[in-house]
TrEMBL record, chain A:
This is Nitrate ABC transporter substrate-binding protein.
From TrEMBL, chain B:
Belongs to the binding-protein-dependent transport system permease family. Gene3D superfamilies: MetI-like. It comes from Methylotenera oryzisoli. This is ABC transporter permease. InterPro entries: MetI-like, MetI-like_sf.
Automatic annotation (TrEMBL), chain C:
Keywords: Cell membrane, Membrane, Transmembrane, Transmembrane helix, Transport. PANTHER family: ALKANE SULFONATE ABC TRANSPORTER-RELATED, MEMBRANE SUBUNIT (PTHR30151), TAURINE TRANSPORT SYSTEM PERMEASE PROTEIN TAUC (PTHR30151:SF25). GO terms for biological process: alkanesulfonate transmembrane transport; cellular response to sulfur starvation. This is ABC transporter permease. It is found in: Cell membrane. It comes from Methylotenera oryzisoli. Its main location: membrane.
Length: 363, 259, 258
């Protein structure tokens, strides 16, 4: 066993290069106030042009953030991340300190924090996105019960695992009742189209599969309790936030401005046009948003309310039970509401959104 | 048997084309057998229009260019690092004893298996890809440089010692020129490995431009035509690079023998 | 005399063999205990050992190993058998050679890895896909090696054997096998290494078991210790495969000389 150790790192020279590089990264992080802020966001490459996803697209479109940061002498760098491996890529980015903020999902963040890399939620991402269960169009399956013992494509450790796990548990099953294939969304969709899996768990791209007649939605979180929806928030590296409160405030305010703009019903069409740049057809968004129990305005509520709190407590509990994480994690410490509260006050948005039950007081 | 041989010999001149043409005909035939078949057997015309679409949008050239760039940078870094380390091992017995065992075992680690580790340490961008590709190019060049220099006839080294060459002079004036054929072979292997690992790392890192990313996107949207165009262009580009390096090698070696 | 010196040399080399690995291990342990890198970036050797122990204890590691090796053995057997037959046929019969050569050479240019998206679309992500990938990776180098080996048998060997009126069996036993086996073995060894690498890559991309999948899962779950165990195990297996085929090569080389 011992002498195979060497396979773990490249030749000594490379090791030294690596050490030097990582020293650089680590010492950089402890330097004076940042001159650059790097925000990772899901992006799509459409015909060589990069389009951002969701709120980041609006923030970029508004241009306010870039201007404000410039006044402080700070440059804004968007770090595009492919939808195929958002959780992993962003977790690795936080771990090797190549990003400062990221908009991404609940489960990967819990996995990261449990692994010892500390991040904080600065702006909660509204009431969440729907998760869908898709089967081949000719499948006779009507519910989870019909899929017992069958093969289901699910990218493990991604946010939609939580919603699916709740559905599984609520239906009286366990993961081991199915053959779970750990496939990224692209490979999962391909496997469904080729008939290699009997079901596929995914997000709103489920509608695209229906349009292409390779899939049929048999279940979604639209029909489930509101807190089953998948959540994604704006996360920041704990150290960066502590060292750069002013920059963090600007970013928070920019995101709240963006969601305030989006949450106005009048901007719906324009929002869809901007969001559409990421390659998903407009009608996919419309269907994702339609027939939903949440109103358009509330969908974008950035408040730290009990919905967010309970959700994370649940995610942590599930992750521990499913043995995805090895340590218990206190999810309350993940919330940093200072910047959000200040932004709401600054933009005079107190009372615009109604919190679900008790709101979290500023830390 | 003889008759069959005779017949086959008669068609020898174009027999190399026979198989591809047959495959194309069968392919086209299969593509007309219904929707379930067109999923895999894309009609040839659709592959053609896919190619036109990719060229017109510039996607093919942008992605191919990015892949080529990664390969070339990795080949240069890894190749010259390999030249250095291989030369060091050939000149210094101590270096050989220290580096050799590490080198020979590490070479067996599947390079693409290092990707999860490298992604965590160095991120998911171009740097990590180039690191993988450099390593892929590094291994064969070390081996061939070392063996090329070790395999030099002893009389050259004796001549050098008569001329009182120091180690550096020995390396530059004797070892390096004499080992050039072997080193070039190493670079040829390195190119092949670099090309494979570039495509592989693009499939596994799935960020940034590159033919690997193009293929993944096509796979996601079930566009077999684009996948086929990408596979063919990977093959052709590999062939082209191989041919040009082999010309360079011939050129270098001819110059040597003339001298 | 030379034998004794060889023995002494090899003993010397064997001792030296462990110097740099042990140095590296010590450096690794030292870097970890000095806390230069956070634990989530670099796990200590002891931590990796403990994780390996846990994975072994729960039977997880064995089951992944079993799946990977099963795919490797089956795919490699299919690929190498086809490669041997095909290489011999192309080497012996000119028309077959002419018929397949251009297609074969064109396909050979495309790295196996580049076929993965296509193969996933055709075969899905089940066992078939992985076995096809391994078989493809093995087939081409083995066909090439066999072809070259068969082509490399000098014509004069056949003439000489005709003069001595050797039987077919002894022709094969004393002429063809000794001339072709060593280069084919080298081809097998190269092919095995490539098959292993391609299998690990394929498992990283799409699988529900196997060492590659264990690493990918470790990556998704941010468990660098599991990833490291995977890297060590894949390296160890690659090393052992290479060494055992090399041993066969030297063994047969000796047999051939005697």
């Amino acid at each position: 066993m011992n002498f195979s150790i060497k396979s773990e790192t490249p030749v000594i020279a490379w090791l030294l290069v690596g050490l030097a590089f990582m020293f650089g990264l680590l010492t950089d992080a402890n330097a004076d106030p940042a001159k650059e802020v790097r925000i990772a966001t899901v992006a799509y490459n459409v015909n060589g042009k990069i389009g951002f996803n969701g709120t980041a697209a609006i923030v970029e479109e508004q241009g306010w953030l870039k201007e404000e940061l410039k006044k402080q002498g700070v440059t804004l760098t968007w770090v595009p991340v492919t939808a195929q491996s958002v959780g992993v890529t962003i977790n690795e980015g936080f771990a090797n300190k190549s990003i400062d903020f990221a908009g991404y999902g609940d489960l990967p963040s819990i996995i990261l924090n449990s692994g010892g890399v500390e991040t904080r939620i600065v702006v909660p991402g509204g009431r969440g996105n729907n998760v869908y269960l898709v089967v081949p169009p000719n499948s006779s399956a009507k519910s989870l019960a019909d899929l017992k013992g069958k093969r289901i494509a699910l990218h493990r450790g991604r946010p939609w695992e939580i919603a699916f796990a709740r559905y599984v548990a609520a239906s009286g099953f366990k993961f081991s009742d199915f053959k779970i294939s750990n496939l990224n969304p692209g490979a999962g969709a391909a496997a469904l189209a080729a008939g290699n899996v009997d079901a596929f768990v995914t997000l709103s791209d489920a509608y695209q599969l229906e349009d292409k007649k390779v899939g049929k939605i048999i279940w979604s979180t639209k029909s489930a309790a509101q807190d089953w929806k998948m959540r994604a928030e704006l996360w920041g590296a704990k150290d960066f936030i502590a060292q750069n409160p002013a920059i963090t405030q600007i970013i928070t305010t920019a995101y709240v401005r963006a969601v305030y703009w989006t949450s106005q019903e009048a901007h719906l069409d324009e929002y869809l046009k901007i969001a559409n740049q990421n390659g998903q057809p407009e009608n996919v968004f419309r269907r994702e948003y339609s027939d939903d129990s949440v109103s358009w305005k509330l969908r974008w509520s950035p408040l730290f309310d009990d919905l967010v709190l309970d959700h994370y407590a649940n995610v942590a509990q599930y992750s521990r039970q499913a043995n995805l994480i090895r340590k218990d994690i206190n999810t309350k410490q993940l919330f940093d509401a200072r910047f959000l509260n200040a932004a709401i006050k600054e933009l005079k948005l107190e009372g615009y959104w109604q919190p679900r039950k008790v709101a979290l007081k500023g830390a | 048997m003889n008759i069959i041989n005779q017949f086959l010999l008669n068609v020898k001149h174009f027999s190399g084309l026979l198989l591809p043409v047959t495959v194309a005909v069968v392919w086209e035939f299969m593509s007309r057998q219904g929707d379930a078949y067109t999923y895999i057997f894309v009609p040839l015309s659709q592959i053609g229009s896919g190619l036109v679409e990719l060229i017109q949008s510039g996607e093919l050239l942008i992605n191919l260019g990015a892949t080529l760039q990664t390969t070339v940078i990795g080949l240069l870094i890894g190749g010259f690092a390999g030249l250095f380390v291989g030369g060091l091992m050939a000149v210094s017995p101590l270096a050989n004893k220290l580096i050799g065992p590490l080198y020979h075992t590490m070479r067996q680690v599947p390079l693409l298996g290092l990707i999860p580790l490298i992604a965590l340490w160095f991120g998911n961008d171009l740097f990590s890809k180039i690191l993988i590709v450099s390593l892929a190019a590094f291994y064969p060049v070390v081996l061939n440089t070392f063996e090329g220099m070790r395999g030099i006839e002893h009389k050259y080294v004796e001549v050098a010692s008569v001329l009182k060459f120091n180690r550096l002079q020995l390396l530059i004036h004797v070892l390096l020129p004499a080992a050039t054929p072997s080193i070039m072979t190493g670079f040829m292997h390195a190119l092949a490995f670099a090309w494979v690992s570039t495509v592989g790392s693009e499939l596994l890192f799935s960020t940034g431009p590159g033919v690997g990313g193009l293929m993944l996107m096509a796979q996601e949207s079930s566009r077999m035509d684009i996948v086929i165009v990408a596979v063919v262009s990977i093959g052709l580009t590999g062939l082209l690079m191989n041919a040009s390096l082999s010309h360079l090698r011939q050129y270098l070696l001819r110059w040597r023998s003339v001298r | 005399m030379t034998k004794i010196r060889d023995l002494a040399n090899s003993l010397h080399a064997n001792v030296l063999f462990f110097v740099s690995p042990i140095l590296l291990l010590l450096a690794w342990a030292w870097v970890c205990s000095a806390g230069i890198f956070p634990e989530q970036i670099l796990v200590s050797p002891a931590g990796v050992y403990q994780t390996a122990h846990e994975l072994w204890g729960s039977g997880e590691l064995q089951s992944h190993l079993h799946d990977s090796l099963y795919r490797l053995v089956l795919g490699f057997a299919i690929g190498s058998l086809l490669g041997l037959v095909f290489g011999v046929l192309m080497g012996l019969f000119k028309p077959i050679d002419a018929f397949f050569a251009s297609t074969f050479n064109a396909l050979r240019q495309v790295p196996t890895i580049a076929f993965i998206p296509m193969l996933v679309m055709i075969f899905g992500v089940e066992e078939t896909f992985k076995i096809v990938v391994v078989a493809k990776a093995a087939f081409f180098p083995i066909t090439m090696a066999t072809y070259d080996a068969v082509k490399g048998i000098p014509r004069s060997y056949f003439e000489v054997s005709k003069v001595y009126q050797l039987s077919h069996i002894s022709l094969v036993r004393h002429v063809i096998l000794p001339a072709t086996v060593p280069p084919i073995l080298t081809g097998l060894r190269l092919a095995l290494g490539r098959s292993w690498m391609v299998l690990v890559a394929a498992e990283l991309i799409a699988a529900d078991s196997g060492i590659g999948q264990m690493m990918e899962m470790g990556r998704q779950m941010f468990r660098i210790d599991i990833v490291l165990v995977g890297v060590l195990v894949t390296g160890l297996i690659g090393f052992l495969l290479d060494r055992s085929l090399r041993a066969v090569e030297t063994h047969l080389g000796r047999w051939q000389q005697s």
